Amino acid sequence: MKTRIGILGLGGVGGYFGGLLAKAYHESEDIEIVFIARGETFKVVSEAGLKIVTKDSEMVVFPKVVSNDPIVIGKLDYLICATKTYDIEESLLALSKCITKNTVILPLYNGVDATERISTLYPDNEVLQGCVYIFSMIESPGVIHNVGALQRLFFGSESASVYKMKALQTIFKNASIDSHLVDNIEDTVWEKFVFISVLASATCYLDFNIGQILESRTGRNVYVALMNEITMIAAVKGLNLPEDIIMQTILKLEKTPPDTTSSMHRDLLAGRNIELASLTEFVINEGHKYEVETPTYQLVFDKLSNPKEA
């Protein structure tokens, strides 16, 4: 029985990891990789493949199927989701004909509420939790540029089939993906969320890249203030995050190319929709829920939600 894996979203995350899967299983009789794409990305990938560029190499990969048509896509055993968080409901409902009760869904979004949102749409399905550490972006339709040294994927679930998760882990490992099936996945996802939420909020609020945040007193002050607020919420929620998480995240930034910025900042600069609700407003709402004050997050949200008034 062939295992069919859909990749929804061919951006920095879905394009990179989906590309590794497509490369590894292009000739496989047992595993089929399906790219779910539309518009210019669909056209380019259909004709010329998906190009992945790193600082050391380039490769072009071809999935078995690339389509946005549920009939062409067909039934899926696994669906890996990596669109923007504001597209979760619309993109997944459009694939209802591809999702059976046995389809395992792995969300790799920037936020922490994706599993709950997807489970509301598909209550009978096993929806995992997952996150990635990667600095990767769309250079142009069908071209992914990976600029960092870290490309790591974490996933897991307290309730999903261990057999199916281990099978997926084997598929990842055989594709040379640095993947980790972990027991304490909620802690892991929140640790990543702390990293990306603070970085996205700080870079957009200050209009700074990572190097400017690290070099500027103002940048570091805003960054640390945001860190203090979100980690306090995590502590009140009872999550087990590293005690030195602020220092750990700063060290991660220092290992990143200084001219790199967050995906939300890139979207803001390009005039595109941004993930403000999932990465900034969500923290404010959690603060209200757990009676933790978030004044710095509120400053960021007020400025970015009313840019003409700022």
TrEMBL record:
Its EC number is 1.1.1.169. Residues 184-304 form the Ketopantoate reductase C-terminal domain. Pathway: Cofactor biosynthesis; (R)-pantothenate biosynthesis; (R)-pantoate from 3-methyl-2-oxobutanoate: step 2/2. It is an enzyme of class 1 (oxidoreductase). It catalyses: (R)-pantoate + NADP(+) = 2-dehydropantoate + NADPH + H(+). One of its GO terms (cellular component) is cytoplasm. InterPro entries: 6-PGluconate_DH-like_C_sf, 6PGD_dom2, ApbA, KPA_reductase, KPR-Related, KPR_N, NAD(P)-bd_dom_sf. One of its GO terms (molecular function) is 2-dehydropantoate 2-reductase activity. Keywords: NADP, Oxidoreductase, Pantothenate biosynthesis. Residues 5-156 form the Ketopantoate reductase N-terminal domain. One of its GO terms (biological process) is pantothenate biosynthetic process. It comes from the Bacteria. Pfam families: ApbA, ApbA_C. NCBIfam families: apbA_panE. Belongs to the ketopantoate reductase family. Catalyzes the NADPH-dependent reduction of ketopantoate into pantoic acid. This is 2-dehydropantoate 2-reductase. The lineage of its organism: Bacteria, Pseudomonadati, Bacteroidota, Flavobacteriia, Flavobacteriales.
